């Protein structure tokens, strides 16, 4: 009887264990019970699991020698009732993840739609700067600065006086040039008088030639007559010799008169040459006067264009030499944007295209502009040392092409744009007129 009770006790313990394992599998695993309410149940369960053969025997004897073994279903229900309900945090996290996923999909869809309708037509770059054709003012003459009429960052108009150089020496140079002109003109007048006198001498010499010619003709006729008489023995030899001597003397006088005419004419030629030299001296003196007056005018330095004075280097008392830097003027009217676009972005960029400009200094104040022109070559071509790819290893690098962007007049006059400022430009390639007139030759 005792042996049978032991067998029933072992079977009961095995059944209890199998029932607990099955209840754990059905309930989704062990659950953590409340520490206050489940303490007693846990203790009872432990005591039931640790039942000894003697306890089983007492129970069997109390029921007439039979042990009541609980079924598997009863054990499973009892175990499930002891487990707590699953936490709700897992469902909440799933809902948050779903919301985040939906928000991400919505944002991605919006960005994709915006790119398809707008973004793919926009060519933008941050390699862009405000540019102006800055005029550097240099001294053309040397001298000490007498006065400075403008200050730094001051607006000026074309023709306004910027600076004056001491002009004492230049005024003296002007007066000296005027004196040289007067002297050269006096020389011209004197030579003209000499030419007139030389011409009178020529006329006088020519008159002497005529008189000598007449005497020579008379002496020649007398010699011929005396020779005929001498040949007929009607005149003596002495008379013939006298006539011959008279002829020779008249011939000599004629030759002297002719030489005097030649000399007088030659003197006129010399005087004419001197007169031309004197006239050239007058021209040179006038040129010297013009240069002196020009240098005198350069002592007053004026603004060549409208703009703002900057980088002023000259002070009162400074010694300037030709080419010395005085100041710089930034012209407002010529302010524009130079944007360096990648060569792969140029396909849709055309002159006249609309541009949105964002200045780094004023990010909340976008400016509207238009493409004015596209450079005929990349920036590297105009660099001081162009890249040489004919030898050595070659690495292809995307080149950039400068694009000139025109800024509205009201933005220029407002003074917000300063040369050298960084900007970000975005060109709408759907706008613009004809493409730039740039011919690209294909290599065959």
TrEMBL record:
Region Disordered, residue ranges: 18-90
Record domain Multidrug resistance protein MdtA-like barrel-sandwich hybrid: where: 137-330
Transmembrane segment boundaries: 96-116
The organism's place on the tree of life at top rank: Bacteria
Keyword tags: Coiled coil, Membrane, Transmembrane, Transmembrane helix
Annotated Multidrug resistance protein MdtA-like alpha-helical hairpin domain residues: 203-269
Name used for this protein in its record: Putative multidrug efflux system protein
Organism listed in the record: Roseibium aggregatum (strain ATCC 25650 / DSM 13394 / JCM 20685 / NBRC 16684 / NCIMB 2208 / IAM 12614 / B1) (Stappia aggregata)
Lineage: Bacteria, Pseudomonadati, Pseudomonadota, Alphaproteobacteria, Hyphomicrobiales
């Amino acid at each position: 009887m005792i042996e049978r009770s032991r067998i029933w006790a072992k079977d009961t313990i095995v059944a209890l264990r199998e029932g607990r394992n099955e209840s754990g599998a059905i309930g989704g695993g062990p659950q953590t019970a409340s520490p206050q309410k489940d303490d007693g149940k846990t203790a009872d369960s432990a005591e039931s699991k640790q039942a000894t053969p003697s306890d089983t025997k007492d129970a069997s004897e109390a029921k007439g020698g039979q042990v009541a073994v609980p079924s598997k279903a009863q054990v499973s229900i009892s175990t499930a009732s002891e487990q707590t309900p699953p936490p709700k945090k897992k469902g909440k996290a799933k809902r948050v993840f779903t919301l985040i996923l939906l928000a991400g999909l919505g944002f991605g869809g919006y960005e994709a739609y915006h790119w398809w309708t707008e973004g793919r037509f926009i060519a933008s770059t941050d390699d862009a700067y405000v540019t102006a054709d800055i005029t550097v003012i240099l001294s053309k003459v040397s001298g000490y600065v007498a006065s400075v009429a403008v200050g730094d960052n001051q607006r000026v108009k074309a023709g306004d006086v910027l600076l004056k150089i001491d002009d004492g020496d230049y005024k003296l140079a002007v007066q000296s040039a005027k004196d040289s002109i007067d002297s050269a003109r006096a020389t011209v007048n004197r030579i003209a008088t000499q030419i007139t006198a030389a011409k009178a001498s020529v006329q006088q010499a020519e008159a002497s030639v005529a008189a000598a010619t007449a005497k020579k003709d008379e002496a020649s006729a007398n010699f011929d007559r005396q020779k005929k008489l001498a040949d007929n023995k009607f005149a003596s030899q002495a008379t013939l010799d006298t006539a011959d001597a008279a002829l020779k003397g008249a011939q000599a006088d004629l030759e002297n008169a002719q030489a005097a005419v030649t000399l007088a004419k030659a003197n006129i030629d010399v005087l004419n040459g001197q007169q031309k030299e004197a006239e050239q001296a007058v021209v040179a003196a006038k040129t010297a006067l013009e240069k002196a007056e020009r240098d005198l005018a350069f002592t007053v330095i004026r603004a060549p264009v409208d703009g703002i004075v900057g980088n002023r280097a000259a002070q009162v008392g400074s010694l300037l030499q030709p080419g010395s830097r005085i100041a710089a003027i930034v012209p407002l009217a010529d302010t524009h944007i130079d944007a360096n676009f990648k060569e792969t972005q140029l396909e849709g960029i055309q002159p006249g295209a609309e541009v949105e400009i964002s200045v780094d200094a004023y990010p909340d104040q976008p400016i509207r502009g238009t493409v004015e022109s596209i450079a005929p070559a990349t920036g590297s071509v105009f660099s001081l040392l162009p890249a040489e790819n004919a030898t050595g290893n070659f690495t292809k690098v995307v080149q950039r092409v400068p694009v000139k962007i025109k800024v509205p007049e009201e933005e220029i006059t407002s003074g917000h744009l300063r040369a050298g400022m960084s900007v970000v430009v975005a060109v709408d390639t759907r706008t613009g007129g004809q493409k730039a007139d740039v011919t690209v030759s294909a290599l065959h």
